[in-house]
């Protein structure tokens, strides 16, 4: 077991409750997609797992150890995080920005080694963005930055990668490439947790799914079982259909009466 959430809840200033009573676990190489309407708690949950927020109820364990007791450096060796947005502070070259993901393995007064840069180059190549290596991070598009941030998380070589809406700034082609990348990372043994607004991404990824409703409660289970028309129609308050498309051999989510 890589990750366990045991009846966790979170509220701001112990007043405004965001979610409660959430429990699930993640195995090595497993994908979990978190779906729900705006404001339901998806990003907040991911921030709790990333140890950026402290849960106000329950406990999160990483390999059986409470994350609150793990040092920041050790945590960074096990958990990579891809935020939804990132505002650059300096105009680092993309290659240098990506190699920063090696920070947990580099001494405080040391520089990245040739091996660290080789790992960074491999990640850039994996995402087909090697051509951005020598460009300033501040001079690339939002979609390109998102891919660069994913590369930086990969070079951490963590056991879990958390991705907060990783396709939100990408064109359709790069969205599909990112879905394929996530499946490939899981095949290599990485555990992946992503948040998304796209039901189709959940069905494409398979694995587990957690579906938030507007009250901050989350239904968890195999994505093939809980991605039902009734559940999705209720959380988005529109009429949705899950249709099997024989030509592509999969189910897709379609809005009716548009």
Task: Give an account of the 3D structure.
By secondary structure, the chain is an alpha/beta fold. The chain has 2 domains: 3-90 and 157-227, P-loop containing nucleotide triphosphate hydrolases (Rossmann fold); 228-258, no CATH class. Helices cover 32% and strands 28% of the residues. It has 9 helices and 12 strands. The chain has a 6-stranded mixed β-sheet, sandwiched between helices. A hairpin with a 4-residue loop joins β11 (240-245) and β12. α4 (114-126) crosses α5. The protein is globular. It starts with a strand and ends with a strand. 36% of the residues are buried.
SSE layout and pairing:
Blueprint: E1 3-12, E2 16-26, E3 31-35, H1 42-49, E4 57-62, E5 65-66, H2 72-78, E6 79-82, H3 94-99, H4 114-126, H5 142-155, E7 160-164, H6 172-187, E8 191-196, H7 199-205, E9 208-212, E10 218-222, H8 223-226, H9 229-236, E11 240-245, E12 250-255
Parallel strand pairs: 3-8, 3-9, 6-7, 7-8
Antiparallel strand pairs: 1-2, 1-4, 4-5, 9-10, 11-12
């Amino acid at each position: 077991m890589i990750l366990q959430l045991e009846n966790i809840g979170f509220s701001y200033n112990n007043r405004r409750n965001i979610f409660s009573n959430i429990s699930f676990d993640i195995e090595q190489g497993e994908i979990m997609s978190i779906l729900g309407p705006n404001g339901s708690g998806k990003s907040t949950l991911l921030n709790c797992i990333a140890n950026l927020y402290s849960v106000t109820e329950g406990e999160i364990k990483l390999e059986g150890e409470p994350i609150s007791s793990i040092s920041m450096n050790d945590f960074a060796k096990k958990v990579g995080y891809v935020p939804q947005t990132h505002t650059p502070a300096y105009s680092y070259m993309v290659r240098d920005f990506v190699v920063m993901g090696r920070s947990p393995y580099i001494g405080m007064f040391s520089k990245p080694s040739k091996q660290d840069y080789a790992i960074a180059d491999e990640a850039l190549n994996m995402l087909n963005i090697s051509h951005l290596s020598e460009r300033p991070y501040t001079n690339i598009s939002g979609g390109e930055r998102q891919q660069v941030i994913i590369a930086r998380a990969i070079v951490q070589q963590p056991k879990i990668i958390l991705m907060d809406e990783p396709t939100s700034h990408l064109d359709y082609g790069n969205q599909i490439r990112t879905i394929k990348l996530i499946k490939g990372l899981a095949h290599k043994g990485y555990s992946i947790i992503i948040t998304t607004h796209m039901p189709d991404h959940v069905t494409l990824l398979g694995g587990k799914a957690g579906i938030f409703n507007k009250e901050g409660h989350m239904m968890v289970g195999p994505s093939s079982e809980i991605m039902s028309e009734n559940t999705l129609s209720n959380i988005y308050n529109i009429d949705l259909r899950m249709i099997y498309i024989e030509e592509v051999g999969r189910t897709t989510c379609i809005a009716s009466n548009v």
